[in-house]
Amino acid sequence: MTEKSPKGWYSRGYLPHYDGGQITQFLTYRLADSLPQNVLRNLEFQLERELITEREKVIQVEKYLDQGIGKCYLRQPEIAEIVEENILKFADIKYKLHAWVIMPNHMHLLLTPKAGFSLSEIVHSCKSYTSTKANKLLNRTGRFWFPEPFDRYIRDCEHFEKAFNYIERNPVKAGLCENQNEWRFSSAWHRRETERGLPAGE
């Protein structure tokens, strides 16, 4: 069986993505109702007219996400556990997982795909499984996640460190806790529990 070649730059109609094979990526998945469409359209308008850069647009989106807009289904432990279980299940199988956090209406991942697994396949598998399970538990139908994630490939060691720290400090930045390892659904919390010799998840 011939291994698939990375896609490189591609788009499914919403956002540009870069699938570079075994290249570390910073991913943001957000819930479908986490960002008002008028806000997103305004940011796209500014970007098209070069009033802001792509990076400035991402910063603005992340500020809105941290405000906890929408129903914030991921605030419910049983829903966050579905996502957490899926993230951890495939770590070291489909990807090397460096850092992660599940926020009330979005989540961040820092990962490197393993050989034979494309970024698009990893994203689709996670979103499909978790949305089905979450909707069933919530007794709802309809879109759970926004159709596409934000993804940024990691350029160098400095970029990796900034992305890692941003992810683990996101709950503190959003005012959800005082110390990053206090946020239950995060790599920082899991690392603390492992260092204490306790089973993660208890």
Q: What class would the helix/strand composition place it in?
A: alpha+beta
Percentage of residues in helical conformation: 40-55%
Report the strand count.
6
> Can you count the helices?
6
- Radius of gyration over alpha carbons? 17 Å
- Determine the mean pLDDT: 88
Count structural domains. Answer: 1
> What's the CATH class label?
Alpha Beta
CATH topology assignment: Alpha-Beta Plaits
CATH H-level superfamily title: Transposase IS200-like
Description:
- The chain is of the alpha+beta class.
- The chain has a single domain, classed as Alpha-Beta Plaits (2-Layer Sandwich).
- Helix content is 41%, strand content 17%.
- It has 6 helices and 6 strands.
- The chain has a 4-stranded antiparallel beta sheet. It has a two-stranded antiparallel ribbon with strand order 1-2.
- Strand 1 and strand 2 form a beta hairpin.
- Helix 1 packs antiparallel against helix 2 and helix 3 runs antiparallel to helix 4.
- The chain is globular.
- About 7% of the residues have low confidence.
